[in-house]
Write a sequence for this structure.
């Protein structure tokens, strides 16, 4: 099945000559072919989106949110269908996929509040008889470039805010997992967005560069690896665009000796191995402070080995495959590197053999490396796979110093029952999303998703008020109306 | 048909011994009997609402808004049905009723944004190591007392915010127009609000006093006449409650000589005669400045007489009856008073004879009194009927002085093409809702409905952020966690 | 020395025939006579304030804050002088007085931000071509009625916001401690507030009632006892005014067994005995949970007896007298009542004998009653003196139930090192100001001072955004300017 | 006089080998030599600023604003001195310089409100028992690069917010006008900022590039030409920094036939010729609509020729020189180009001869070119000098189309008395700062300075809330504290 682009309300065959293959990571079954659309199709989408902008921008916000309310209802209606599609193209479990769609819907919900969120400010009498106010007007045509790991959620970190504020959008989903957003676009169409307001162009690197260079596109939102995020930020900025580019991570998670044993073990394991480790908020470096080492090491080990792998749609399955064979190989190589750097292989997931129906699946079971060196390469490299690195710190000071020495700043989590440890941690840990007894500190849709350091490039983050600010331009109006003029009557 | 109370998710027969009659104002047909519930039923509702509060308050805001999203969808689905019910029990036209329901829905839409609207504030380091934050927690059981003129809209100025913020509610609709809210409650039930969260108790003055005196009820929202609003404010305050009580109005509307002729004539007439004049934002005193007198007097006269009266559900009908025979009599008496005070009767709507099918209807056609004296009694008395008082001011200064001499401050409207006149008007006119080339300056749901002077008693108004502030208590938390405590590990 | 009223920028002799005596509570030395001004002087102040309002309201906010910036600088310059005056008329220690002035200044600092805080909101295109905005305009003449216990701070919870938002003010300080505000007014005069913007009328109950009844006064802010606060709320509301009335308290403070021993002992003692217990945020009922009883009872006892009493201006003094002989008697009576109710007198401060120079002072040393019954009368009566009631709860559930059974809701404090206990406490404790390891949870000036239950009557609290909302009326403007009108050119 | 850098609280001799000359543009008198500091000195400043950040960041906001309050007072005290210094090094008139300092102070005033502006948000119960909040933490070391035309104001668009939010700063003033900020830094030193919090490094292009490349510097704020702004944005973004870069402008100003004649003539002339045209909000293309041509052309001509040139410190002088001989030459060339493109030279300011004392001054009198072609090069080129281009549009449609065809979007102004024209203009004109009967629509300090299109690169603008957002990183904290943990007691 060759996918089509959606431009100006029409599903259009791409003139692409190259394609990416979409396959079920658990079975290897080919699901679709994604066209790597040429720049000319980006140009067509930009032109049509710019035309649609003229009227969409003049549509009152209270009208613009009506399709969003319908979209919310439609996504609830197609909740299971969307979740299943995520499982098929991404490999995660149905439970994980459901959580993902819930998060997507929450962003639609928040964007339904645009009439209030978009309000500007007024000051009467900045001087006698002179008033000043600030309104927000949309930016124009904006683009969203999304990754493979949350095909149903990440587009919605941006899309609802972009359209609700009056922009028209070009969406480029991951070429490896484009099917969920195909459903998403179909639902948006059914929800009643006018033609040209939401467009989707499939593609790869060349397509992205065409977006970055296109003069009609005023803003770019991106989530992906740090290397690409840097490229996006630099190139889009050189072209004068607004940019928000979210990169990779290497999230530390710190366990204190006073942490709740049962809860911590469960949550930590879920954080590391959930979504097969393929999320930018997965915990990776587990730092055990002092006596926590003895308490938690065996428990984590035990919980890891008990994790049930399989096809994400099957009952009882707790973990699916990684996205591709290439990815599996890369992760295996990193495990090897960890061992070479002196780490001890407590649990080796590489030997996992799936049942025959899944023999083409890219499975890798939970893996635990102990005594990973804080100054080694593994401790600094994003694995994006189900690998837990255990590290042992003497005390909180050392643990926080380790955290803050890292290149990334997406998340830092802490497990403790102590209010004092928690306060110090959240005050000092250099990461934008902090979890206290939380394994995956994903901000709710009404908070900005706040990566720091090399996990984010730009100024304004995804979601909520940051989204509104990013997708609108402030316009200041200073008005003088002489009182004398009212005297003519 | 005897109406039932809705308490704790159950429709309950009232032990009332007195009843109000609900009838179609256009035909006199009896539609229902409203029980004037005794205090014991208020007490039952308060007790059950307080029990429901325990869990509802602990339900996360993101969950509490789910029934609101459903309610929005259900109200869209039952849009026509609700509008028709309004026509039947209130008498207004179907177009007016539709506009009313649209406004009701808009408030539901805004309240869907509660997770964001309800956010509190945090300050890190108010002193070294000490943080402070403010959260909002619901007030408890709150009551809403609504009037007859907007049976489908005014309850929604309050209800969505009250429940979304975590309160449980006792609703008392007008005993004359309770049927629309009966539908409203049925839709809320279908939307999934838990039992006891929304309750409805029918009744009259005694029922209201029971609400004002009940210690479990923490806040009262009211819309009605100024006399009753004053009573509500005084009595509820004496009982220590939060109160917001919206009263009557006598809205001035000012036409400048430079006003757009066609648009102004149409809008002004609609403002005065729409809803048969029975709205708190109806223009009543039309002040013609200078040369506007000659331009607009004949046009207003002509437009008034052409207005088509009839049953609100019939095609082409532009105006329905007033609510009751008693009301019709009162209005006729006020017209008489105007004439006695020296006004000239340009158009006399009292002589209108309805078709025989509507001969029991309380019809009164558009009436225009010219040269109404600014210092007479008519110019200061709320008519709440389709009567336009024309007044002639020499200039803008005089007109604004007239406006500001009034007792009420619900609305003041201006018609002009001049930016300078508009600025001066909005700066100086003492009313909380200002229209510039707008006949009925009803604030959108994301703004507070801002009556001033004797049009409002309390501090925080209906709708939006004011609603959230009114229905929540701020709770300040100051926290100290010594850094030393984190050193034990 | 007979004090004068300050009306319209002039210090005016009052025609009062009755006077209150201002004396140093530590020595009995008479400092001044406060006139109990008759209603006619309230009327004069209201009239002059209304005249001043005309221009002050039209003075741009950026200009209105200039005297506030000067006032901040002047208060820093006269910091010690003001603090000493507080000591003289109130009796507290110089350290406590300094803290008080610091808080007063912080409110001036926050009110310097009025241009931003007072901004309204704008929505472009609520419908095609129609815009809506909300501005804030001042209320008019407002009154502040202040208590004796923080003569230099409480007026500033209101004053800076009231004037910065464009209102003119009538201030009535406590007739027992009017001297600090006399200095305050002198500084405001020096700071450049125009005549009539700030006025001060001395007086007692009759003066207050004149304020509550005066039609020109639109809003009343009060801090005092609950009985008077209720009166203020009821009477001002019956007169249609905005009201915020802060009442008394009976603050519980809960100590968990895991609390930091040294810090807790010190802070708890300071909370109970600081300002000789005469503050609405003083802890009164100290609830020791479980094993905390054994740990803390002897330490609290020891710390209490070591407290050094004397004249607040003398070095090393940690506690001053209570405000009056009458007050001392009342407190002694309450101690007696506690004993009658079965409490054990661990420390009896009634026997304290001051040095001869202070023999006329109203001294009462720290007193501790143990095993005070939660259902007795003492545990529910505000003492407003240096008396600590110890109570012993089996567990957190019981302790929180005790707290929530109380009539008041000004403050509830908790001492623990556990994050879990803290979260539960702040979620469940029914009080508006929560302290976690904080003895006196006074909100910073940029948060509302959030009393609950019988500690507060009204809706909007003192300080910050609540002050701005309380002292301004929202005005909504809906504007339509037809595009066609721009075509004439 | 060779200027020194100010690093770590010490005035340090620069090792620069190249220098820029600072001279009085009106007399040519050399005032100082500005070192073009080498990268090593940027590095030293960055290192010291990073050290100072450690403690400054931990200083509570209420403490951090204390030096700002002192700075406000000091700037008022040295108001005239600072204004005179601006005149000397920049050439503008003393009146213009005073206005500039007033604007600088206003930004200090707004930044005094940081404790409130910096507050984060809290949501209780994002799920049962889980809370989430957002705090703002400073970015670290930030840099400001300022232009010559407002040496005393533009640094304060950034500085007060940067330090108040807890960052430490490296300031690079224009090498042509560094003296005013030298005074500014001296005042900041006197105001009590700790060493290393504010630093100043003089320099040129190489110095700026060192700033853009330095890894310790996390954010860059710039105002200057569009060419340099683009460079700043691209290079700083390529280095992963936050950037806000304000560029040039070519501001259209539209006069309708109904505009107030006297006021418009005066304000328009002031906008074009004020500061000798050297401001980014100077009107440049004056578009006369329809009959406005006949009314205003002669009046503008007359007003232009009457403008009194001279030394900015001399009484009665209305206009000073341009910044340099080079600049004068460039402007003269542009006038020539305009003539070549077909414009008519109504007033030629190039022939102006200053009095002998100013014969070395770079004077150029007001110049008016009529019938400048909208599609010519002059109409698109920023002149940055006292040159008015008159253009004649048939109607409003044409005029707005002309405006929106431009490359820049700093300001668009309109003169009219019609509310309808104003609304349409502010809705449609593509510029971020709109003036209605305002010649220089500079936003007050409590609004963002909102350039659009090629007048701005980045997302968040200077001043107020945008400044706070730009200079802080959001940090999200998600907290779970199990209720069970509180059961242990």
């Amino acid at each position: 099945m060759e996918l089509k682009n959606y431009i100006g309300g029409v599903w259009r065959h791409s003139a692409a000559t190259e394609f990416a293959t979409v396959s079920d990571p658990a079975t290897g079954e080919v699901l679709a072919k994604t066209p790597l659309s040429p720049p000319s199709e980006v140009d067509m989408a930009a032109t049509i989106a710019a035309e649609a902008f003229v009227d969409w921008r003049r549509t009152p916000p209270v009208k613009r949110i009506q399709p969003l309310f319908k979209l919310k209802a439609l996504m609830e209606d197609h909740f299971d269908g969307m979740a299943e599609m995520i499982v098929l193209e991404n490999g995660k479990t149905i439970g994980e996929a459901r959580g993902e769609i819930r998060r997507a819907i929450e962003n639609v919900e928040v964007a339904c509040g645009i009439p209030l969120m978009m309000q500007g400010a007024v000051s009467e009498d900045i001087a006698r008889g002179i008033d000043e106010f600030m309104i927000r007007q949309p930016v124009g045509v904006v683009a969203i470039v999304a990754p493979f790991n949350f095909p149903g959620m990440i587009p919605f970190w941006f899309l609802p805010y972009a359209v609700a504020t009056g922009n028209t959008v070009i969406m480029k989903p991951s070429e490896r997992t484009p099917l969920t957003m195909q459903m998403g676009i179909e639902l948006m169409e059914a929800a009643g967005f006018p033609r040209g307001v939401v467009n989707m162009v499939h593609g790869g690197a060349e397509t992205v560069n065409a977006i970055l260079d296109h003069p009609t596109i005023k803003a770019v939102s991106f989530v992906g690896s740090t290397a690409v995020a840097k490229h996006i930020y630099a190139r889009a900025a050189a072209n004068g665009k607004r940019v928000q580019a979210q990169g990779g991570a290497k999230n530390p998670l710190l366990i204190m000796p006073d942490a709740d044993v049962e809860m911590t073990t469960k949550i930590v394991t879920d954080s590391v191995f959930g979504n097969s480790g393929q999320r930018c908020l997965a915990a990776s470096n587990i730092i055990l402070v002092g006596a926590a080492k003895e308490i938690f090491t065996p428990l984590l080990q035990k919980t890891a080995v008990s994790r049930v792998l399989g096809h994400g749609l099957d009952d009882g399955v707790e973990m699916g495959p990684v996205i591709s064979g290439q990815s599996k190989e890369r992760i295996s190589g990193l495990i090897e590197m960890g061992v070479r750097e002196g780490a001890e292989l407590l649990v080796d997931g590489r030997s996992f053999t799936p049942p025959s129906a899944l023999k083409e699946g890219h499975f890798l079971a939970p893996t635990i490396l102990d005594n990973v060196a804080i100054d080694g390469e593994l401790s600094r490299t994003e694995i994006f796979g189900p690998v837990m690195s255990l590290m042992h710190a003497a005390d909180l000071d050392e643990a926080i110093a380790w955290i803050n020495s890292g290149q990334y700043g997406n998340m830092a989590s802490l497990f403790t029952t102590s209010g004092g440890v928690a306060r110090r941690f959240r005050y000092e840990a250099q990461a934008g999303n902090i979890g206290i007894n939380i394994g995956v500190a994903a901000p709710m849709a009404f908070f900005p998703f706040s990566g720091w350091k090399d996990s984010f490039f730009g100024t304004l983050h995804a979601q909520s008020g940051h989204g509104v600010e990013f997708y609108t331009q402030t316009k200041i109006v200073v008005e003088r109306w002489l009182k004398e003029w009212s005297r003519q009557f």
Remarks:
- Residues 39-56 of chain A form the longest helix (18 residues).
- Residues 270 and 281 of chain A are 11 Å apart (CA to CA).
- Chain A touches chain C through 29 residues (CB under 8 Å).
